[in-house]
Specification:
Two copies of one chain form a homodimer. With 145 residues, chain A is mainly alpha-helical. Chain A has one domain: Winged helix-like DNA-binding domain superfamily/Winged helix DNA-binding domain (Arc Repressor Mutant, subunit A), CATH 1.10.10.10. Helices cover 64% and strands 9% of the residues of chain A. Chain A binds a DNA duplex (30 and 30 nucleotides) through helix 4 and helix 5.
Chain lengths: 145, 145
DNA sequence: TAAATATGGTTATCATGGTAATTATATTTA
DNA sequence: TAAATATAATTACCATGATAACCATATTTA
């Protein structure tokens, strides 16, 4: 998260960046704007997800399983390879999604270390129910800023 | 944070967004890109801060005090008004910055509810020491993606 | 001016992110 | 094939975000 409400004006930035080249200074202004904008987006989306029993990560886990062509399920480590999240957080989040009935887990008979994770009917319905509002929300937010 | 490593291709997005107009679909693609890009930026910067005894929030608190024209200190609620962070998190983070000697706190004799927060010499030096690397890091990251 | 309301800050509790170390199973290599 | 290494997942622990409920003090209003 990037918490600064008012981004520094160009004049203010110069206090800190006067030694930098113009292109460096403007690339920094861009970066600050991107981080601020994304923080507002992410925060609003988290509220939307939370109102629907999800979170960014919970949602994205459902998405990566759902969007996989020709596959009904993924192994945990395949989910991990598609998402940029630490393993312990993935373990915990999968467990909660299973507890909530959105995913189910079955042993892999070939490699007994790994688990097969499948979207349940409930998980699939949850995703379908949340997606339209997700896109609407993003469109609203993008129009807003 | 937005954890999706590979953003959906246009083709893949259509599975979900076929009912949306072209401009809506592209605004969604933009939003996903902004969130992904910012997540990578924020994550790298957190590592940089953490290696220097700071965090995004700790850094930004030092910055908003330092950058204030004609003021040596701010009240907690003024810091809060400049940053988009909950009050309890601000309380806790200020307390730790004071414990670490980067800030000092003195009572406000006019309004006894509030506290005056000042950058110490150590805090000011810490900021000066961290800023150049912060800008370098941002420039590197912006060049990279 | 006494009561009601607003404001500044804290405490308690929870959710969710991370790293380091561990267990169990597969795979590679000496 | 036994030992060493790699991989999949988990456990234990910590940092840092949020909300709700709470004091203490100021301010407004009946």
């Amino acid at each position: 998260m990037f918490f600064l409400k008012e981004l520094p004006t160009q004049a203010m930035l110069e206090k800190y960046t006067s030694h930098l080249s113009g292109s460096e200074a403007s690339s920094i202004a861009d970066a600050l704007m991107i981080m601020r904008r994304a923080s507002l987006l992410v925060r609003s989306l988290e509220v939307y997800f939370s109102n629907n029993g999800l979170s960014q990560l919970r949602f994205l886990i459902l998405v990566v399983i759902d969007r996989e062509p020709n596959r009904e399920s993924l192994y945990s480590h395949e989910i991990a390879s598609r998402l940029d999240v630490s393993k312990p957080v993935l373990t915990r989040t999968l467990k909660r999604l299973i507890d909530d009935g959105l995913l189910s887990s079955s042993p892999n008979t070939v490699d007994r270390r790994s688990k097969q994770i499948t979207l349940t009917k409930k998980g699939s319905e949850c995703l379908s129910q949340v997606l339209p509002g997700y896109f609407d929300k993003i469109n609203d937010l993008m129009r807003e800023y």
